[in-house]
């Protein structure tokens, strides 16, 4: 009987000890670690999403669009969540037009929990890929910079980077005006990871449009003439500027060789340079007309004023 009582007492002591340990652990988690755990829970159940601002358009003097931003998506992946990566790579390649081997390399990575599959995919193509409902793929909304006139004024307009920042030309010099301010949204999830609420933390401010003095028709003609000069004389480069004599407005600013504004990387470095403003030339005799025009405007000479010139000038 005493043996049984001792065993019961020992069992009671064990349970009491476990209860004390559990209470101490609860107190530790509820008091000492409360702040850290609360922050960790919030991190798991809340996430901030960047809402990219639409970049302002660039137009000519008549409103003809030279640079616009169109809805697009970046496709990213959590590689270890993607099942049957070869199959998914084949499906995505057919839908978005990116080489299958490049997609597979990203999906097969095991050195990271995040990998870009494709950047700036047109929204229509991205939605088709999204309809596959592949676990592990993430579709991030953004905008893609597009130049509707392709080759027109490419060196003048410049380029933007993958993160929508201006890198050269007007896209760079007027970046503060064009880029706008990105917004932010906060997504709340339940314990299962399903979205239950989204709130706007910071409103998106779209970029301002930029209207140039350029005239698309005159620009097109100037580039056509330069192309003829390039074909006939085979120079390394050529440039032409057309100004409005009434106010000095630039009506055309053309460079040759031409560059595809939607694919500038295919052109050599010297072709991407805006020679009209990035290089210096000695005007020579071509500037005499401006000198005489200034003298006429100031009344220093008349159209029939004679000049005595020496037989030779050095």
Shape descriptor: elongated
* Uncertain spans: none
Largest sheet, described in full? 5 strands, mixed
**Number of distinct helices:** 12
What quaternary form is this? single chain
What is the radius of gyration?
33 Å
**Mean pLDDT over all positions:** 87
Distance between the termini: 133 Å
Strand content: 15-25%
List SSEs in N-to-C order: HHEEEHHEHEHHHEEEHEEHHH
Question: Could you tell me the number of beta strands?
Answer: 10
What is the structural class?
alpha+beta
Percentage of helical residues? 25-40%
Q: Would you mind describing this structure in some detail?
A:
The protein is an alpha+beta fold and 314 residues long. 38% of the residues lie in helices and 22% in strands. The protein is built from 12 helices and 10 strands. The chain has helices at 2-32, 34-45, 85-96, 100-107, 123-130, 154-157, 169-173, 175-178, 216-233, 269-272, 275-278, 288-297, and strands at 46-51, 58-59, 65-77, 115-122, 137-146, 183-189, 195-202, 210-211, 238-243, 250-256. The strands form 3 sheets. Strands 2, 3, 4, 5 and 8 form a 5-stranded mixed β-sheet that branches. Strands 1-6-7 form a 3-stranded antiparallel β-sheet. A hairpin with a 5-residue loop joins β6 and β7. The longest helix has 31 residues, at 2-32. The N and C termini lie far apart (133 Å). The mean pLDDT is 87.
